[in-house]
Amino acid sequence: MPGPPTRHRGRRERGSQHIGKADDRRGIGRAGRPTARRRRRRFGDPATDPARHALGGRGGRARPARRLRRGVGRSSGAGPQGSTKAERSPSATPSKHSPSPTPKPRPELPRGGRELSRYRLVGYCGLPGAAALGRLGVGDLEDQVRQIEKTARAYAADREPQPVLELLATVANSSAGPDGAYRSRTSSDTIRRFHDAAKRHRALLLLNIQPGRASVLGEVKALREWLVHPDVGIALDPEWEMGPGEVPGNTYGHTSGKELTDVARYLSGIVDEHDLPQKPLVFHQVAVSVVSDQSALRPQPGVVLIKSADGIGSPGMKRDTWRQLVRNQPEGVRTGFKLFYEEDTEGSS
Predict the structure, then answer these.
(1) Per-residue DSSP letters for 298-323?
(2) What does the pLDDT read at residue 37?
(3) All structural domains of the chain with their residue ranges
(4) Torsion of CA 226, 296, 28, 25, to 10 degrees
(5) Distance CA 166, CA 251 (A)
(6) What is the C-alpha to C-alpha distance for residues 21 and 324, in angstroms, rounded to an integer?
(7) What DSSP element (H or E) covers 88?
């Protein structure tokens, strides 16, 4: 198991986020510097005739009144004497039927359908103005999204490529801040800008949470206005989830199977309430110790759980981390992995 992330801030996030394909237990969405080995191992009715008015009975002309003593003649209704029997008959009454309203289409994923299993999810992670946190925050956003598209196509294999923008929506800090939560939140304006870019390119937007000492579920709930959209999911970074007395960057954080289930259940409620397609819930795991009691992890309707093997170091170290993390994999959890373009090439042979 890797030691405390003393170098974690500043360099290790300098990579691409690759999220596992929803139904592929072998891992998906790898980018970076491809190799043959890595490729092999690869997140009324309109048709109804209108009713016709009867004009003047049989001949179309009003009949003269036969019994004036009654005050009214039997008329066809063409004259001012009032309604006739013909007018009151169902065959002469204008149709009250109107075309049935067209059913509103159900929300779909950015590239169609409602299930993630047809797609290979590949993307970059980052935050504008923080180059150390990933490529997504470097340079022109449109250029980065176009590059993600190319990378996704390169690793799609037998699946359809689905580009992903993983924006850090909650960032862990080494200082407590005014509320003592050791985290800051990305502004709504920034999230909106990335969501607009995702919509333009038919990409998924993943909102990444590094909670510090804040409540994970509380941070997820704070993003509800975005989560009601069919193209927005959640990514959790539990290594940055601190307990009392812990400071981000000094030690690995941790979560539990129960806490992940609570988040999945909340997302499932949103999916059900708004009739949304499946939502990805990614949790990055840098070491076995980061997620305790995995047996308590329970998949929820409409939510695809994806364990993203994180890890730091050379390709050999990454493969060893992968083997440990996929051992005794909980039922219903899919796999993916995260690569760092610089650190993961150190020590390569």
Answers:
(1) ---TTEEEEEEE---SSHHHHHHHHH
(2) 38
(3) 15-31+112-345
(4) -140
(5) 24
(6) 19
(7) helix 85-88
Mean local confidence (pLDDT), 188-206: 97
- In order of 43, 58, 137, 139, 163, the CA distances from 134 in angstroms are 17, 84, 6, 11, 16
Pairing verdict, β 15-16 and 303-309: unpaired
**Per-residue pLDDT band at 98 (split at 50, 70, 90):** low
Give the contacts of 239 (CB within 8 A, at least 6 positions apart): 5, 8, 252, 253, 254, 284, 285, 286, 287, 290, 310
pLDDT at 28: 39
| Backbone angles phi and psi of 234, in degrees to 5 | -125, 140
Strands in the chain per DSSP E: 15-16, 119-126, 160-172, 183-185, 204-209, 232-236, 255-256, 279-285, 291-292, 303-309, 333-337, 339-340
Residue 89 and residue 64: Cα distance in Å, rounded? 21
Cβ(254)–Cβ(290) under 8 Å?
Answer: yes
pTM: 0.73
Contacts of 260 (CB under 8 A, 6+ apart): 236, 281, 283, 291, 297, 305
The helix (H) or strand (E) run that includes residue 259 is helix 257-274
β-strands 255-256, 119-126: how paired?
Answer: unpaired
Q: What's the pLDDT at 244?
A: 93
Token pair for 264 = 């999945």
